[in-house]
Amino acid sequence: MLDPYHVQVETADLADLTRALQLLDTRADLNDRYRKMLHESLAMLAEPQIRLTQARGLAKRLMVLIKAAGPDFPATLTADARETLAAGEAKADDLVFRPEET
Question: Residue 90: which of 12, 4, 7, 20 has the closest Cα?
Fold first, then answer.
């Protein structure tokens, strides 16, 4: 098994994470600390490649940011926006809980 620290991931393959983070950026009411975390994550996703360990960290950040947006946040979204958020959550789950499949 390869060391995940040295495995590179194309950020194009993380588009669902990027779209979910962008949605949170435009729609969620987040404090400054979470907003900084969100912007750092988007900056990292602007690179062509990142380490697999970084991708997993971004997935965990997405989970934290969704929780920080509040339990009613998904209900405030349109159906398309909820699908975008769900796709981001699914990709995050794959990276965090099923890393061998990503």
Answer: 20
What does the block give as tokens for 32? 């400054």
The residue ranking higher by pLDDT, 7 or 77, is 77
The pTM of this model reads 0.91
Structure token pair of residue 23 = 């949605």
| Separation of CA 81 from chain center | 14
Three-state SS annotation for the chain: CCCCCCCEEEHHHHHHHHHHHHHHHHHCCCCHHHHHHHHHHHHHHCCCEEEHHHHHHHHHHHHHHHHHHCCCHHHHCCHHHHHHHHHHHHHHHHHHHCHHHC
